[in-house]
Amino acid sequence: MNEVTYVQKACAYITRGMNELLVFEGPGHDGLQIPKGTLEPGESPREALFREVREESGLGTLSDTRHLTTDIWTRRAGRRYVRHFFHATVHEPRDRWTHIVTDGGGEHGATFSFRWVRPTTAQAFALELDEYVGLLPTASRTDEVSTLSD
């Protein structure tokens, strides 16, 4: 009988205004990603969220943080990920930036390139991380955001 391992993850949908979603590209996965990571022993999903966002993006202040949903996602046989998705807002003036990951894990020292996208274009993310973008509150899914460029 094969034993299944469950790994707890915190995933962050961070928005600026009503129609901008923070995404990044970095080594290890094809496609866009959102800040996310594994819970440390004794850490709650909410605590992991704040730590992971700081380590992966450099952002330190999040507002209006709320839990959206939790799912169980399988990537490999014998390993399941319990993913806790959160939404938070941020007041960030930069449209694009890079950040060197500061965690002690496997991504330590990697450079992530951040930018904002419209939630309506949030598709084909790495690791199916776009699955719950539709749960985000937005002023209007069809509003244009003039500061974004693709």
UniProtKB/TrEMBL annotation:
<dbReference type="InterPro" id="IPR020084">
    <property type="entry name" value="NUDIX_hydrolase_CS"/>
</dbReference>
<dbReference type="GO" id="GO:0016787">
    <property type="term" value="F:hydrolase activity"/>
</dbReference>
<dbReference type="Pfam" id="PF00293">
    <property type="entry name" value="NUDIX"/>
</dbReference>
<dbReference type="InterPro" id="IPR020476">
    <property type="entry name" value="Nudix_hydrolase"/>
</dbReference>
<feature type="domain" description="Nudix hydrolase">
    <location>
        <begin position="5"/>
        <end position="142"/>
    </location>
</feature>
<keyword id="KW-0378">Hydrolase</keyword>
<dbReference type="InterPro" id="IPR015797">
    <property type="entry name" value="NUDIX_hydrolase-like_dom_sf"/>
</dbReference>
<protein>
    <submittedName>
        <fullName>8-oxo-dGTP pyrophosphatase MutT, NUDIX family</fullName>
    </submittedName>
</protein>
<dbReference type="InterPro" id="IPR000086">
    <property type="entry name" value="NUDIX_hydrolase_dom"/>
</dbReference>
